[in-house]
Amino acid sequence: MSGGLHEHTLPSVLEELSRARANHTAYIDGAARITYSEALERAHRLANAWRKLGVGPGDRVLWLAQNSYRIVEGVCAASLIGAMFCPANWRQTAEEMAFVIDDFSPKVVIWQDEEIGEAVRGARGIARRSGATWIQHDGPDEYEALLTSADASRVERAIDAAGPTLVVYTAAFAGVPNGAMLSQRAILTQSLVVQFVQHLTPGSVFLNSGPMFHVGTLMTTFAVFTQGGTNVFVRRTDAEQLCQVIHQERCTFAFLMMKVCEDIVRLNKDGRYDLKCLTSPAFFPEWDAMVTINPRDTRNTAYGYGQTEVNGLVTWTFYGAPGDKGVSGRSAPGTQVRIFDPDDKEVTDGQVGEIVVRGPTVMCGYWNRDELNAERQRNGWHHTNDLGRRETDGSLSFVGPKTQMIKSGAENIYPAEVEGCLRRHAAVADAAIIGIPDPVFTQSVKAIVQLREGSACAPADLIEHCRAHLASYKKPRIVEFIDALPRTKLGAIDYKALDERFGGGNYPGQAWQTAQRA
């Protein structure tokens, strides 16, 4: 493998691990157990197979499937040839997947038939762009046949660690999602921080139980990988399977939401699975008794502020100190965080403004979004579109998004996307989406709809309309009708008035509303 004196790339890390930890298990995925030496060979085979299919520098490979070790393998192969690899949200509808296919314009699409095949085939039929090679990775397993028949020789080329390798589509802030392009440098830098904060070692066994189209899972996946630990993969979250895998593989760490923890406790009430190998923050007594709890001051209980565009967290409570005023901790090594006013001037401590970031973990930009990139990366800073505050002791507080956001479980839902879908219904003149408190999922989606004059429509019809065009978790659970939506003096929808009238609330960082009005 070619490389300069200071080369540090994903392939060079994997190359070293294939020597230093050749026989250590890198991936566990069902019956598949792959060592680091095997992982290196497979990455080169896959890169050579893709090159034969016409994938070169700057080209794109799209993953339309659930969690798998092949996502990590795909990122490594893409990094060898200067391509980009995107694990898309498999929970999307056919229409949403088709948008990503058209927007990303991949040379190769790797897809899964089990559970999501209908949506994937529907997306393939709707998508306008053609010419991609489609490879099924389950069932007949065209993927493995392609890989094993490919040349195993090393790919020799100069690798730009600062160029885009991993693409993760964000939620639809302004009505459509955008593909954040993350570099190998971003992945490797964040991995060093995560290893330290989460106390990861070569003996760590990470259960990839969170969706791998989110950086919340991926930043730990790559931290464990580059440390030479073991990544365990499950296709999706299922409480019984998670119990079995934790018990059998002795997983030490996992990406788990509170509801999943509650499901595990109910299922494992009789203690049939030994989960003591799993370290976790303290959540509630029944869970705490089932796993191994870390004291609050250990490295496994860190939180902070971040987003997809900066490859995860850029501030961590781990770097804070007892008594910090800021709820989001302090910035990580190598990261610069500032709070700017609307004129891009830094505000004084204690004032609310936009969080801006720069450093090696910041994205290269959004794929195919030149105007948006110019706006979000102006003056040498990444503008997050989030509000925050630098406290007088130097710590940081995330206040909330500049635009209204609804949090349902682990998913972010942006009203603009759901409103746009509702407005496409023939009976709808206008619509607004608010979040109402939900005891299980933090918030539920409520639609406030203004019908066209002379039109009639049942709430169930509008919910079904959204379900047909959007991922199910985005659809309204409740629809209420209004003669005319309230407006602010500037003509924008008055969400505050809607919240007060229709029971909206429990927004993440709800102080954003106060900050905007101040």
Provide the helix percentage.
25-40%
Strand fraction equals 15-25%
What's the average pLDDT? 91
CATH topology of the largest domain: Rossmann fold
Radius of gyration: 23 Å
Number of domains: 4
Number of DSSP E strands:
26
Low-confidence stretches: 511-518
Q: What is the CATH C-level name of the largest domain?
A: Alpha Beta
Looking at CATH, the homologous superfamily of the largest domain is ANL, N-terminal domain
Can you describe this structure in just a few lines?
Its EC number is 6.2.1.-. The chain is α/β, with parallel strands linked by helices and 518 residues long.
Secondary structure elements and their pairing?
Blueprint lengths: L9 H11 L4 E5 L2 E4 H17 L7 E5 L4 H13 L2 E4 L6 H11 L3 E4 L5 H10 L6 E4 L5 H7 L15 E6 L9 E5 H14 L7 E4 L6 H13 L2 E4 L5 H11 L3 E2 L3 H10 L11 E2 L4 H6 L1 E2 L10 E4 L4 E5 L13 E2 L4 E5 L11 E7 L6 E2 L3 H7 L5 E9 L5 E6 L4 E3 L2 E3 L1 H9 L4 E11 L3 E10 L7 H11 L8 E4 L13 H8 L8 H7 L1
Parallel strand pairs: 1-10, 3-4, 3-5, 5-6, 9-10, 9-11, 12-13, 25-26
Antiparallel strand pairs: 1-2, 7-8, 8-19, 14-15, 15-16, 17-18, 18-20, 20-21, 22-23, 24-25
Protein name: Putative sulfoacetate--CoA ligase
Family: Belongs to the ATP-dependent AMP-binding enzyme family.
GO molecular function: medium-chain fatty acid-CoA ligase activity
